[in-house]
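I am writing to request your help with a piece of structural work I have in hand. What I wish to show you is a protein chain and, alongside it, a tokenised description of its three-dimensional fold. Could you please explain, in whatever detail you think fit, how the structure tokens follow from the sequence? You will find the record immediately after this paragraph.
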Amino acid sequence: MLTMDISTKSFKIISTLEAISFLVLLGIAMPLKYIWDMPQMVKIVGMAHGVLFIIYIIGAYIMKEKLKWSWGTLGIVMLCSVLPFGPFYAERKYL
């Protein structure tokens, strides 16, 4: 069992940063890599996004426990993390 405490406000910040990093990865870094042969941005943004994604998933589980979400709600919130703009939706609907 996780004993770490995370506030809803902190999770909202993580959610927003995760969503922005995903959009930057898809909209800026990937085109730079595949259209203009500049892969450096994918390494930087990809690593940041990966770390934020993991923190988001852990935070979502903690929010499930804290806010008494059902497993279905947790599944939707986690699914939103792999969709562009998804974390923005999850943040507004479930937090």
